[in-house]
Amino acid sequence: MKESPSLILALDTSNYTTSIAIVEKSEKILFDLRETLKVKPGERGLRQSQALFQHIQNLPVLLEKSFEAINADRIAAVAVSDKPRPLTGSYMPVFTGGLSCGRMLSATLKIPVFRFSHQEGHLAASAYGTGLDPKEPFLAFHLSGGTTELLHVDSGKITKLGGTKDLSFGQVIDRAGVRAGLNFPAGKEMDKLAFGAAPFDNTIFKPVHFSGLDINLSGLETQAERWMNEESPDLATLSLLLFRAIAETIIRWLSKAMEATGCNKILFTGGVASGEYIKREIHKCFSSDICTVIFGQPFLSSDNAVGIGLLGVNQLWP
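The chain above was modelled as a monomer; its predicted structure follows.
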């Protein structure tokens, strides 16, 4: 007797990663394939057209690897990220690569295609395996290369409470790192350097400005550039003080958010949130009797298609 299809094939084409995942009906992750987009040394990112071109090159290679191990008749549906956020009008060209591929697979295999936002995928991936009840309200910080937002999530509905008015934390980190000689993206290397840096007690960065639950980060970047130009700090010290300033900002932000909402369950997602230094500082500040701080597994906090696959599972088999 032929086995019923029980797998979701998921696609995510974000600003800097092409991702394909295959997730079982049981929510077991079978495959998690990713290809980081290439950025030339010294450059601080990619234009959307450059990123989309690389996605188009990467998707067939990752799909070939997937179908070498999984027969197509086991795929019950395709799930794909089609926009940055779950909002009307939310759009980035990079997501058209994954969406077009997903629609072609749907038509060829004669299976449904489910569309979700990249942000919804981030939340689902970071919540995976943590015991977080998605039906209960919680706060979420989406902290990645291009996004710095405070969210309220209730039964799947995402409401933005605050965010950056200019740069993201990831942009501040990457720009400082590239300026100091690291390759883009610089976050992982700077996170390691921050841990190994010698203690440095002086305060270099002024506190980030808050307007309600919104923040401005261009001043932090300006201060970093000025310090680098005037003092030429070693990279470890730069990493330590910049990451310390970011952690202190998040701690203040979290305190304000809990006071404003009364919600004390918080999920962190995004590449910046996967850093060990920032995670340690936040855990040091908030004990379990004050709030429940949840960090997803590091490999599921950065860009991936696993969360999109999990959402597809819940869509097809609620």
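The CA atoms of residues 145 and 171 lie 6 Å apart.
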